[in-house]
Every structure is written in structure tokens, then in C-alpha cells.
Amino acid sequence: MRKSLFIGIAAATIAVTALAGCSSARSGGDSSTKIAKGDTVGVSLPAKTSQNWVLAQQSFKSALTKAGFKADVQYAAANNTVSDQQNQIEAMITKGDKVIIIAAQDGSQLGTQVADAKKAGITVIAWDRNILNTKNVDYYVAFNNYLVGQLQGQALLDGMKAAHPDKTTFNIELFAGASTDANATVFFNGAMSVLKPKIDDGTLKVLSGQTTFQQVQTDNWDPKNSQARMSNLITSTYSNGAELDGVLSPNDTLGRSIITAIKAAGLPNPIVTGQDSETDSIPLIMEGIQYSTIYKNTDEEAQGAVKVVSALAAGKEPAGVDKNDKTNAYNGTITVPYVALKPILVTKANAVEAYANNPTLEALAKKG
Q1: pTM of the model
Q2: CA 101 centroid distance within chain
Q3: Which stretches within 164-221 are classed as H helix?
């Protein structure tokens, strides 16, 4: 009896010791392998459809190197982007990257890849865009995208009121990003939280009648698509002399394409919003052609993700994690632990001040 009891106690002790050893190899309380300085961190970026994606590569390389990690930064190809990104993530898993930071080309089509990463003990961080309908995401680092939409919606209202102080009603059209981008709906919902009450009370009129996300989304965030749609709206709705007072544009690239279509039609310039503070849009803002943009510092966002990795490598819980922000971080399955960064609305009035930490953008604003 004593012998049996001794064997049972010994077995239990071994089991507890093994579990403790296993626990000490975890990071951040999740099921991931311990991360250490010198490890390789994979960064999977989407196609280079806007300037901020182009800037992201160097931002990550610089931030990861400075923090003591090796950087494996890759882009999805311009064609066949989803499968390309899927293959890149699988390759990062095979190579043994300890962390994979993913800016999803299509957040709904990476479930298999992030599940494979978690099986391999890899920490998965969604960056800038959430990854949808999966439990296999450890953290989400992004600017507060619902707030981005709210800022855009309010800027549209403020800009139209300033441009037309005698008007009590305004005609507007709505544009949104790609339905494959999880952020696009968040931007749109944020903007509509500001605009829909004004549509409902008659202050704003969407003459085309196109007010749902699916009606106004832009395939692939492609400016050719937004320019074509704006041209079609002008022909169908504004060729009879109706005035277009404002356009909700979700980013600068689409905003410039919308402005191009309006200019080609010979219409007066309306209030047009944007996002990303692209260098081609800053002069337009300073000239009063584009009304606003949103400043989301790519370096700051990359550093936000790297700070999460550094904290995990130190065996600490990353700072500033919100586990309950369903508005920004619910992915359809879980509310992903979320590190939020604050976006800045930029107009001609505050551009120089807003870009004070960015010499390139500050110079453009001062030049204007």
C-alpha cells in the first residue's frame, strides 16, 4: 500500500514538474513558445496598394532590429494576393519564426494559416487589420479605427458647414474600403455613427440612395474602381445640376481618385475626406482641394507591435492591452486582446502642428 502510494506521489510530482517546466516556456500567458531576443519575427504585409504599406517594411525592419530581433518582412504580390500571403505565412511557420505579425490582405481567409501557427507554438499578432473568425490570434495592434471613421464623418460635416454657412441641408455621397478588409467596415460604421442621424433628420441627403456598406465598398481599395464609381454617380445623379457638397472617402488614395473624377466632370470641388496622410494628398489639403486626412504614424504602429513582442520576450504582459473592446477588436469569434493607438484628424488649419514629428510631412505642410 505504501509502495503504491509512493509511486502515485512520485508520478504526480513528475507531472507537476513537467507542467511547471512547460509553463515556464510560455509567453504572455498564451500557448506560445518562449520568445527571446535574437529570434526571427515574421511580418506578413498585404499588397502595396497605398503609401502606408510601402512605408511599413522599413518601419518594421528598423523597430525589430533596434529591439534586438531579426526581421523577416514580406509583401503579398500585387496579383493573387490572398494565396500569396497564405503561402508566405506557412513558409514563416516552416522556417521557425517565433512570432508572426500579420497585416491581412483578406482577414477572412487566414484561419488555416493562423491555426497552423498556433499549433507550432508561434505567437500571432494581427496588425493594422484584424484577422476574422478565429480564436488563434494572440494580440491585435492598430489605431482606433472606429474613431478614425468618427473623425472622418465629423470632418465632412464641419467642412461642409464652413464652406457653405448659409446652407441647412447638404448633398453627399459615401465611399468605403474593400469588403475583404476588416477595417473597412469599422471605418464606415464609425463614420455612419456621426452621419446617419443627420441623414435621418434630413440634414444630409445621399441623392444616389447608396448608403449601405455593400453598396459603397471599393473592391481591392483600387482607385480605378472608386474613380469609375464617382464618374457613374455624377452621370446618373448630378448631371441635372444638383450640387454635390461632400464625399466621404475612407483614405487618401481613393480621395484623390474621387477628386479626379469630379474635376473631369467640371463640377465644383466638394468637401472630401481621407486617411493615411499620403504625401500626394498633403499639398491638396493645403490648397483646399482635399479637406482632411487622418494621421496614423506607420513608425508608431510598427513600434506598437514590436513593444508587444519585446514584453513577451521579457516574460511580461504587454502594456495597454484592452481585452474588452468589441467595437474595434471583436473578430467574429473572440474579442482579440487589443493595443490601440490614437489617430489624429488633419486639416489645413492644424497640418503643420500635427506633422511636427514627421519632417517630410511637416515640410509639405509648411510649403503649402
Answers
A1: 0.85
A2: 13
A3: 182-200, 213-216
**The three grid cell numbers given for residue 341, joined into one nine-digit string:** 493607438
Say yes or no: domain 27-137+297-341 is CATH 3.20.20.150. Answer: no
CATH pick for 145-296+348-354+360-367 out of 3.90.228.20, 3.40.50.2300, 2.30.120.10, 3.40.630.30: 3.40.50.2300
Integer Cα distance of 143 and 271 in angstroms: 24
Exposure class string for 13-45: b at 16+ Cβ within 10 A, else e: eeeeeeeeeeeeeebbeeebbbbeeebbbbbbb
Beta strands at 40-45 and 70-75: parallel, antiparallel or unpaired: parallel
pLDDT at 1: 39
User: What does the alpha-carbon distance between residue 253 and residue 327 come to, in Å, rounded to a whole number?
Assistant: 25
Q: List the domain boundaries for the chain.
A: 27-137+297-341, 145-296+348-354+360-367
Q: Specify the pLDDT at position 32.
A: 63
Could you tell me which of 288, 287, 231, 235 has the C-alpha nearest to residue 258?
Answer: 231
CA 358 – CA 297 distance, rounded (Å): 9
> In the chain, which stretches have pLDDT less than 70?
1-32, 80
